[in-house]
Specification:
Helix content: over 70%
CATH superfamily: Nucleotidyltransferases  domain 2
Number of strands: 2
Strand content: under 5%
Largest sheet: 2 strands, antiparallel
Order of helices and strands: EEHHHHHH
CATH architecture: Up-down Bundle
Distance between the termini: 13 Å
Structural class: mainly alpha
Radius of gyration: 14 Å
Strand order of the largest sheet: 1-2
Number of helices: 6
Shape: globular
CATH topology: Four Helix Bundle (Hemerythrin (Met), subunit A)
């Protein structure tokens, strides 16, 4: 697969996805959870910024992740913007991982995030 879509280098996103996928499968210790959460944060940031760049190439300006997810849904880059709003909420929680309930809430969405991330990457290759 090519690492340039719409003139945008997605190689870092693909590498980050691979790290996240590896980390999310090992969540026994607090240290493993912390590493997986950090990989989630990195993927999340790369994804929304990639979405933003794709939308800009289409002439659509967005300023925030929420606007980006709405427009990405309208432009068929993602199928469910509401799901991405949940990921945004969990990303915002990730700076408070000293609370065990936050760690659990973030780790709980990893399967959905993984599927949504894969869907987005597949959509990129359809451009």
């Amino acid at each position: 697969m090519q690492d340039f879509i719409y003139g945008i280098d997605i190689s870092n996103l693909l590498k980050a996805r691979d790290v996240f996928e590896r980390f999310r499968r090992h969540l026994e210790s607090d240290q493993e959870k912390a590493g997986a959460i950090q990989a989630f944060e990195f993927c999340y940031e790369l994804i929304w910024k990639t979405m933003k760049r794709v939308l800009e190439k289409k002439g659509i300006e967005v300023r925030s992740p929420r606007d980006c997810f709405r427009e990405a849904g309208l432009n068929k880059l993602i199928s469910d913007p509401e799901q991405w709003f949940i990921f945004l909420e969990k990303r915002n929680l990730s700076s408070h991982t000293y609370k065990e309930e936050n760690v659990d809430a973030i780790v709980h969405i990893f399967p959905q995030f993984s599927a949504a991330m894969s869907e987005f990457i597949q959509q990129l290759y359809q451009l």
